[in-house]
Amino acid sequence: PLLKQLVMKRGLMVRPIAIAPDPDYSTPETTRVIYYCRPKGPFATFDKTEYLIPNDQAADLVLGLLNRLLGKDSDLAKFLTYQQDTGHLRELLVCTHTQVDLACGRFGTPLYRQLRKIHGQPGADLRIWQSTHFGGHHFAPTLVDLPTGQFWGHLTPEVLPQLSDRCGDPQPLAQCYRGWSGVSRFEQMAERAVWLETGWDWFTQP
């Protein structure tokens, strides 16, 4: 009901995504909540707050975050002890949500495993997650790159090293880049064209 209020009545764009627990990243009896929000003014990365919270308090935390978006009083101070210092981490969320679209599970799962094996080792500055659907299943396999917020699709194993390292000629990835989540669908088309012209540094420009 709160999500419906935010999206349908307030017109706020809220995109809940569930991530599968990973033994190397997770702690027993806790729930990880990662909250990204758009900062004011020009930006290149979304603001991030992460919590690692006891399972029985996770629902209260999520309700508090949603109520804050609705402008209601929300006591989030009691959750400060559960905040995590992970602002430096890059997160790749790969859709493997077979229940929504078979292609996401069939094609997304092998890509997730490849990325996880090569780049997602404990202690690295890059975490790889399996996630639920975040839109555009006809682009499967898809991933979202956070905190910068780029959407990718039609991915193949061959392009993953370049995407992960953000290096080299962007043209081989031209058909894979869906656009930046910080702008509208039609603006993404122009944003994609600028990236192809200017290269990877474009993703760091506010």
Protein described:
The longest helix is centred in the middle third of the chain and has 18 residues. Helices cover 30% and strands 20% of the residues. The protein is built from five helices and eight strands. The two termini are 34 Å apart. The chain is globular and about 50 Å long. By secondary structure, the chain is of the alpha+beta class. The strands form two sheets. Strands 5-4-6-7-8 form a five-stranded mixed β-sheet. The protein has a three-stranded antiparallel β-sheet with strand order 1-2-3. Strand 4, helix 3 and strand 5 form a beta-alpha-beta unit.
What key phrases describe this protein's structure?
206 residues; five-stranded mixed beta sheet
Structure in a nutshell:
By secondary structure, the protein is α+β, with helices and mostly antiparallel strands.
Write the layout of secondary structure elements.
Blueprint: H1 2-9, E1 30-37, E2 47-54, H2 55-69, E3 83-84, E4 90-95, H3 102-119, E5 126-131, E6 143-146, E7 150-152, H4 160-165, E8 177-180, H5 185-198
Parallel strand pairs: 4-5
Antiparallel strand pairs: 1-2, 2-3, 4-6, 6-7, 7-8
* Helix-strand makeup class: alpha+beta
Arrangement of strands in the largest sheet: 5-4-6-7-8
The number of distinct helices, counting runs of at least 4 residues, comes to 5
Average pLDDT figure? 89
- Total beta strands: 8
Major sheet: size, sense and barrel closure? 5 strands, mixed
Outline, from the CA principal axes?
Answer: globular
- Catalogue the unreliable spans: none
Please report which band the strand proportion falls in: under 5%, 5-15%, 15-25%, 25-35%, 35-45% or over 45%: 15-25%
Radius of gyration: 17 Å
Instruction: Write the element-wise H/E pattern from the N-terminal end onward.
Output: HEEHEEHEEEHEH
Question: How far is it from the N-terminal to the C-terminal residue, by CA?
Answer: 34 Å
Helical proportion, percent range = 25-40%
